[in-house]
């Protein structure tokens, strides 16, 4: 499918699966981690034969996925543990979307696939997915999937400040436990079967709940466009009500919740199907009476009522109950529930730091760490402050084989206190760092810098160490530096002089 990105984490080769999805190895897409073959897995899907595991070292480990700015995507990460590390303790760690904590990943059953899905509006040309903060075991990941969403699917007024994290997407009346996804769903959403049984998932079903289905076409080209195959099945409350209870991952909180109805039952004589939604403790949630045939309008057509913003509990119990003037019990084909996750802005220095790192991506893993430079843990060559904001205060790129000019992004890092760019092959002048009034330590020694020593250096109020030795600087040292009680080394710059004094190297 055009625009689909399917990453087999830990996989060694690219391939196309039985669904027609093209899978790509993550080799070259991430700088850290170890590919591992998963033992004892019962899955027949090739992508679950391997995973990528990371050390429990307090660092974050990030994938940067290419996206189109301002486009909306479905993003899915999966985790199949299968006892890959032979540890007695199941892994528990955090999943991040950029600087935002997306969800905890907690393994309770080594053979069960853990899935996290989100609908995100891309704010830049990449989306970073990071693993961090292991409580037990090692962070790991099996797959990453990115699916573009056309038009207005899942558009919300809050999408610039919050993304949608999936809590439930259920296909009711399913004929088997198998989920419905691509190619039946062109957006490759995974509609879980209501036949799947696990603790606190779709329990407390009302007596008289039966499955119904049709093989006739159902019109679904509106709203969120659930797949026709999902809308061709449903459950009906033949005794007047449908009831269910399930736990909602990530809740309590504010969410996006919609039900999908279509009248797919045949009737010999005209009949009515009217019902209302009831949620204990939430009387305001009950909307107007649902009359599927009238609201759709007609048979075999999608009707999608719901809430763009509704507060829901962790344990959701709900019922659809027929009205007194209805001749048939309620019907339910499918529903989706997402939680709003507020986007954390991260460090204001993130854009400048990403631009700086992008200059050196071929020089080593350090330039490809990805994610926010400060949160939830800083890049290996960066130190950050935490109050009142996450700001980059130290950069250490000593001996990294840097070439070209001093990276201009340094000028935008106004909270820098320490810069170490020594022992590289940098050329050109020393940039204007006057805006970084917190600078106290500067190491530019052992490069090939040219030009003069900037006069602003003598005005930096916190400067205590300035190392410029073994460059190609020229001209006179600013007089004001004479009166500063700083460590200042400029040896090895043959054309650099102190005004009124013969050459010296250090004071």
From TrEMBL:
Membrane topology: Single-pass membrane protein
Gene3D superfamilies: Galactose-binding lectin, Ribonuclease Inhibitor
Recorded GO CC terms: membrane
Domain Malectin-like: 7-339
Localisation per UniProt entry: Membrane
InterPro entries: Leu-rich_rpt, LRR_dom_sf, Malectin-like_Carb-bd_dom
Descriptive protein name: Malectin-like domain-containing protein
Lineage, uppermost ranks: Eukaryota, Viridiplantae, Streptophyta, Embryophyta, Tracheophyta
């Amino acid at each position: 499918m055009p625009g689909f990105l399917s990453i087999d984490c830990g996989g060694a080769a690219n391939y196309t699966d039985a669904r027609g999805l093209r899978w790509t190895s993550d080799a070259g897409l991430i700088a850290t981690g170890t590919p591992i073959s998963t033992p004892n897995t019962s899955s027949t899907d090739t992508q679950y034969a391997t995973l990528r595991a990371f050390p429990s070292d307090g660092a974050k480990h990030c994938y940067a996925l290419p996206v189109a700015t301002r486009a909306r995507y479905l993003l899915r990460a999966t985790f199949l543990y299968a006892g890959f590390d032979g540890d007695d303790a199941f892994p528990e760690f955090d999943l991040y979307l950029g600087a935002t904590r997306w969800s905890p990943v907690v393994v309770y059953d080594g053979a069960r696939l853990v899935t996290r899905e989100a609908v995100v509006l891309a704010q830049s040309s990449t989306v970073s997915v990071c693993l961090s903060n292991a409580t037990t075991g090692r962070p790991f990941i099996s797959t990453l999937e990115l699916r573009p969403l056309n038009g207005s699917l899942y558009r919300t007024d809050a999408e610039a400040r919050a993304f949608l994290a999936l809590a439930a997407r259920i296909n009711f009346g399913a004929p088997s436990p198998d989920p419905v996804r691509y190619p039946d769903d062109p957006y490759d959403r995974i509609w879980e079967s209501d036949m799947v049984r696990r603790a606190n998932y779709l329990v407390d079903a009302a007596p008289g709940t039966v499955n119904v289905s049709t093989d006739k076409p159902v019109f679904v080209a509106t709203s969120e466009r659930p797949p026709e195959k999902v809308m061709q099945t449903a459950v009906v409350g033949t005794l007047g009500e449908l009831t269910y209870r399930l736990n909602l991952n990530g809740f309590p909180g504010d969410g996006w919740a919609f039900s999908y109805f279509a009248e797919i039952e045949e009737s010999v004589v005209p009949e009515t199907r009217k019902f209302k939604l009831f949620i204990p403790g939430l009387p305001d949630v009950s909307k107007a009476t649902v009359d599927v045939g009238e609201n759709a309008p007609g048979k075999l057509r999608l009707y999608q009522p719901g809430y763009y913003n509704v507060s829901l509990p962790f344990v959701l119990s709900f019922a659809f109950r027929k009205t007194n003037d209805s001749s048939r019990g309620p019907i339910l084909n499918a529903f989706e529930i997402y939680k709003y996750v507020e986007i954390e802005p991260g460090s204001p220095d993130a854009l400048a730091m990403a631009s700086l790192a992008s200059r050196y991506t071929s020089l080593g893993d350090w330039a490809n760490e990805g994610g926010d430079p400060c949160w939830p843990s800083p890049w290996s060559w960066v130190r950050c402050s935490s109050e009142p904001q996450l700001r980059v205060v130290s950069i250490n790129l000593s001996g990294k084989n840097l070439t070209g000019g001093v990276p201009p992004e340094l000028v935008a890092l106004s909270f820098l206190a320490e810069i170490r760019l020594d022992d590289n092959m940098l050329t050109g002048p020393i940039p204007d760092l006057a805006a970084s009034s917190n600078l106290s330590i500067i190491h530019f020694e052992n490069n090939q810098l040219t030009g003069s020593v900037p006069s602003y250096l003598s005005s930096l109020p916190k400067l205590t160490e300035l190392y410029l030795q073994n460059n190609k600087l020229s001209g006179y040292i600013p007089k004001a530096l004479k009166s500063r009680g700083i460590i200042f080394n400029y040896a090895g710059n043959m054309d650099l002089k102190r005004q009124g004094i013969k050459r010296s190297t250090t004071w």
